[in-house]
Predict the structure.
Amino acid sequence: TVKAMLLEWCRARTRGYQHVDVQNFSGSWGSGLAFCALLHSFFPDAFDYGSLEPGARRHNFALAFATAEERAGCAPLLEVDDMVRLPVPDAKCVYTYLQELYRCLVAKGLVKTKKR
């Protein structure tokens, strides 16, 4: 399924990043670090991943969403306030955002897709 492929892509891109273990589209994204790791894997010069803290959720979400918008042209479909308010992010919202981010990265030629 598309969902399984997207999850596997996220898992592969974030493998090896500290404090990140992508298993789903909800709790795995709760600290904001998975978003940061995913973006850092494409834009390593955008910010220092090693300086980020799991507890600094607001900062992590804000950094990730700003980087996605600036570097990938990805619309900020998720609100930092909403993400911080919920202890576990809404899986549908996270999935939708990641689909859009993937689409933007493909459009920029940063993700290789199998041409049919």
In short: The helical segments are 2-14, 33-42, 57-72, 80-85, 91-107. The chain has one domain: 2-107.
